[in-house]
Amino acid sequence: MGISVSFIFVIHKQTNMRKLILIPFLSLLFTVHTVNAQNTPALWKHSCNCGAMEMMLLDTNQNVYIFNDGSNSNGISSMIKLSPSGGQYFNNTYLPAGYTAMQFNNSIYKNGNIYIAANVSNASQSQYNHLCLLKIDTLGNLINQLVIDTVETTRLIGIKSQPFYSYGLHIDQSNNIHTSFIKVNAGLSIYSFLKFDSNLNLIAQFHDTLGFGVYPGPCYYLPNGTVYYAGPGSISKLNFNYASKMWTAPLYSSFADPQMIHVENGEVFVLTKQLSGVPDPVNVLTRILDAGVIYINSYDTITAEGPNLYFTQMLVDLSNNAVYLAGNNSNLPPTKRYVNKHNSMDGSIVWRDSSFAGGMIQDLLLSPQKNVIAVGGGNNFNVWFYNAQGTINNTFVYDGPCGSNDGIAAARLDAFNRLIVTGSSCENNNTINYGTTLKYNIPIITTGSSEAQVSLPISISPVPATTEIYLSGGENLHSIASIDVTGRSFELTMDGDNRIDISMIPAGIYQLVAHGDKHVYKGKLLVTR
């Protein structure tokens, strides 16, 4: 740490015009290090001997709902509600009468209620082959429940539940409930779609026979209930009233196995992998333009091919013409994890990273600065923060105290851009699959272009500060963080009066980094209590 002479901005009002006046002051220079500790400091941790966590929801009050698989404790899947500070409100099971086991598939929070799609079984069955829909209030009370005993269902995993839609479950703009699943009739695989009103009364259904022994790909719902769904080698569009298919488009190969779908502004993106008929896995990104009752195939881009190299995760950011893909290569140890950025318009690769090993990448998120965040694990909870050039800017790690069987299953950013991750960890030698949830402040993700921008000082008052500070500067600021001498970063939010709440960060000396449209601003922040 050294001393240097720098300048601050002071806004001087004269004849209704703003001027920036440079005033010299002494500032402390910090070297900011990437966070890559054995156990990265978290805001809080919740752990229970109830089984691995599979999904996560947040309500409008930023309470956290996590769903465990019941592999420990009493062996029954349950939903746990946590407060924004990590305290547990309840841990409830919702097994219907006459059934002995349940698997959660998808979950959505909307209009003050939680909707869940699950599979259930009873003692006479060898598999989870009945569909169960649940409607629950935020106090954990069961409002409505429906079990459909006449269909054989196969689980459609949905850890990427989003507000109002997810794979296999959707609440449309009229509050109708949609669910999709596969059923088998005399060996024929049938992709089935059901639509219910808010009281779980069936109002529409559609069934598409895919073939013998065929497993369906994912589906994606628009707000009005229009659904896009994938089968072997094709993707179809079903209208919102389930009257008929509007079109079916072929994918790269009839052997293509769809992994992910995203639809936005009439652009349909499909990630597929092909294992049959090729010596090595072939991974393809397809873009299709939806023109209503017809389609236009835009491109089929081979993202990767090679021994045991495959991609399973996709994140689309049309505001930056970006499609992010993630996968792994398990051919030779150490297993390499891959993250690609593609140009959404033509499918070309912008950058690729395969610089790290570890567990599977389970999800991709966007930071407040529109950079990609990859989460996963296997040996540890891992979070990788990428900058715009495709290099890892920060890494968060959590290693359970008793071993290496730790991994993230789901992740969310809350309304304050704090990262919440949940999954399974080894907390006790006798019971490996503890459900563990952690909440973090996230770092400012610096980019090559931002670092090349001129770094200017910024005025911070008061000095020292206790609960809040004010900034003075010459342009709009879109991300602000305070960084301590160990490199730990705290995301800060500024209101319309340039006021920033710092009551949540510990006393100490920080470097404040603020990103504007054209410049990066830095200054010294002294917090006392």
Quick structural gist:
The chain is mainly β and 529 residues long.
What's the total helix number?
Answer: 1
Helix % is under 10%
For the termini, the CA-CA separation is: 23 Å
Structural class: mainly beta
Count of strand segments: 43
Q: What profile does the largest beta sheet have?
A: 8 strands, antiparallel
Radius of gyration over C-alpha positions, nearest whole angstrom: 25 Å
Question: Spans with pLDDT under 50 lasting ≥5 residues?
Answer: 1-37, 448-453
Shape: globular
The whole-number mean of residue pLDDT values reads 83
Instruction: Give the amount of beta strand, in percent.
Output: over 45%
Structural summary, described in words:
The protein is mainly β. It is built from 1 helix and 43 strands. The strands form 10 sheets. Strands 3, 29, 30, 31, 32, 33, 34 and 35 form an 8-stranded antiparallel sheet that branches. Strands 12-13-14-15-16 form a 5-stranded antiparallel sheet, with no helix packed on it. The chain has a 5-stranded mixed sheet with strand order 36-43-42-39-40.
